[in-house]
Amino acid sequence: MAAQMMEQGIWFHPPTKPTNLINPVVLAYMGDAVFEMLVRQYLVGQENHKSHHLHRQATQFVSAKAQCALLEKWQPLLTEKEAEIVRRGRNAKSGTPPKNADPADYRQATALECLVGYLYYEKRLDRLYELMAVAFEGQNSE
Predict the structure, then answer these.
(1) Which of 21, 40, 74, 87 lies most in the core, judged by the most C-beta atoms within 10 Å?
(2) Under DSSP, is residue 92 helix (H, G, I), strand (E, B) or coil?
(3) Phi/psi of residue 13, nearest 5 degrees
(4) CB within 8 A of 118, min separation 6: which ones?
(5) Residues with Cβ < 8 Å from 125, sequence gap 6 or more?
(6) Catalytically annotated residue among 32, 102, 105, 126
(7) What tens-digit pLDDT sequence spans the chain (142 residues)?
(8) What pTM, to 2 d.p., does this model score?
(9) Dihedral, CA of residue 60, residue 116, residue 39 and residue 61, to nearest 10
């Protein structure tokens, strides 16, 4: 059992249905967690590890506004399938946006998270890392 779990890597509990049949809001739910984990890994890999600094830097990536801007950077790089997943995520009924988020930004952030969740469940970490490299371009460790 332990060897099987090691082979699966981080996919301890795979989804019960094919990725293309998972509700986009559910993909976004997982994508939110994966995106934040990747941002945190990046930040911990930088020089400054003070907790207030890490939190402040993380919010530059994980806010609806930041994710909306990032999705704009990603758009020209997306495959047709990835663009379809983004459209599904943007059009999904995901509830009421937080009070501090613009509804349009929130829909775009949900779309980005849906794509991240999709790539995660498809085990396309190579592609996810390519896109995240774009997110971190030009960042410094201050």
Answers:
(1) 74
(2) coil
(3) -125, 95
(4) 19, 27, 31, 82, 85
(5) 119
(6) 32
(7) 444 444 555 556 788 899 999 999 999 999 999 999 999 999 999 887 787 888 888 888 989 999 999 999 999 999 999 999 999 999 988 777 777 778 899 999 999 999 999 999 999 999 999 999 999 987 754 4
(8) 0.86
(9) 0
Q: Which amino acid is at 5?
A: M
Token pair 């003070």 is found at: 50
Top CATH class of 22-136 equals mainly alpha
Rounded Cα gap, residues 21 and 100, in angstroms: 31
Distances in Å between the Cα of 20 and the Cα atoms of 84, 119, 139 are 11, 11, 33
From CA 77, how far away is CA 45, in angstroms rounded? 25
Question: Has 32 been annotated as catalytic?
Answer: yes
Domain ranges of the chain: 22-136
Q: Which two tokens stand for residue 93?
A: 């009924």
- Residue 97 has what DSSP assignment? P
- For the chain, the first-to-last Cα distance in angstroms comes to 44
